[in-house]
Amino acid sequence: MSMDRRRFISLSAAIAAAPLAASCSGYDKVAAPGVPRSDFDEDSTALQVTEGIDLSGKIAVVTGCTSGIGFETMRVLALRGAWVIGTSRSLQRADDACKLVRGKTTPLALELSDFDSVVRCAETIRALNSPIDMLILNAGYRGGGNERTLIDGVEKHFLVNHLGHFVLVNRLLDRLFFAWQGRIVVVASRAAYRGAPETGIRFDDITLERDYSDSLAYGHSKLANVLFSLELGKLLKGTRITSNALHPGLIDTEIDRNVNRFLQLGFGVLAALRGKSVDAGAATSCFVATSPLLGSTSGRYFEDCNAIEVRESHLQDMAMADRLWVVSEQLTRDYLVKHERPDWDEFENGLRKSGRDGA
Ligand SMILES: NC(=O)c1ccc[n+]([C@@H]2O[C@H](COP(=O)([O-])OP(=O)(O)OC[C@H]3O[C@@H](n4cnc5c(N)ncnc54)[C@H](OP(=O)(O)O)[C@@H]3O)[C@@H](O)[C@H]2O)c1
Questions:
Q1: How far is CA 208 from CA 203, 262, 327, in A?
Q2: Please, which residues have CB within 8 angstroms of residue 44's CB and are 6 or more apart in sequence?
Q3: Catalytic residue among 141, 193, 212, 335
Q4: Domain ranges of the chain
Q5: 212 is catalytic
Q6: Which fold has domain 32-332?
Q7: What is the distance in A from the centroid of ligand 1 to the CA of 353?
Q8: Residue nearest to atom 44 of ligand 1 (CA)
Q9: Which of 57, 76, 339, 357 is 20 to 30 Å apart from 44, CA to CA?
């Protein structure tokens, strides 16, 4: 194939793949007030942002540890001394990924579109009877083919990316209370404002029946990720648990596994031109999960290792976050447990003095 023809195909593919990368600009971003600024930026890697941080004795859960950002997040946290519990839909794949990593790791099966699987995974983690220091909600799904998929009446992106993680957090929350400073890290995307419906969460059409596209559904679910974290930040005020959401960057991973070859080529070209390496793609997750700067930062949204606000987006819409919480509870009610805040007198250094199970 001649060079010009190859370049033409790559360029066309990149243009066609632009929605996949939530690639359009024009948003006014400002530094989030009251959050310490870091010196890290879009080029920083996960290794750099965790340099000098000793995670020995800490436990992290990373959903979707088998490829891309999740694998690098697991690798770096384990290298820094954390015990990482990594999940995949396939226990075998999780095990293979864990074996590639230096440090202490445990593979677990988790299918986020199946609440029974979510509950089983959470129960296995709970059975360890240990605090969870970092819960990194990284696993993600992006459809291809623009065909709306409903599972038990719920749109698949919303189910996998948002509701599955909603149940997982609910089931593990008391383990985060046990930690000295539990952190929930929600790997969202800038598609939360670039690709979501203009009016935000479609409460009157939550399955996107009206006008479905994979980009819209992905953006819808990623906006749900950010609003979930925002609401968690509010509900957890006064506790030592924080919750923050982030966009990892544009990275050529397997997130495009369901789209056709042409779009995969375009996504690869866009990521090569305007994206990050996987090492840098895991930086914001690792930074938000471990930085001593962020001990009391909660309910924020991060890009390139710094908290920002995006004007004229729904990312900070508290009323929308409240309403999403109610709807999410309704959709998952048979799988949720009720929480009472632990009595702090019962705890010492994150552990129950009596040694009783915290269930
Ligand atoms: N790459 C980007 O440019 C980009 C941009 C913005 C946001 N993100 C977000 O970053 C996160 C990580 O994505 P990635 O780019 O690293 O993609 P990836 O390479 O496709 O990794 C996704 C992970 O999620 C797991 N997963 C997929 N479907 C699942 C399901 N139904 N239940 C449980 N686990 C499931 C996969 O594990 P198994 O297949 O082994 O189950 C895999 O480990 C996602 O939340 C994605 O939305 C990525």
A1: 10, 26, 15
A2: 280, 283, 287, 304, 305
A3: 212
A4: 32-332
A5: yes
A6: Rossmann fold (3.40.50)
A7: 38
A8: 140
A9: 57
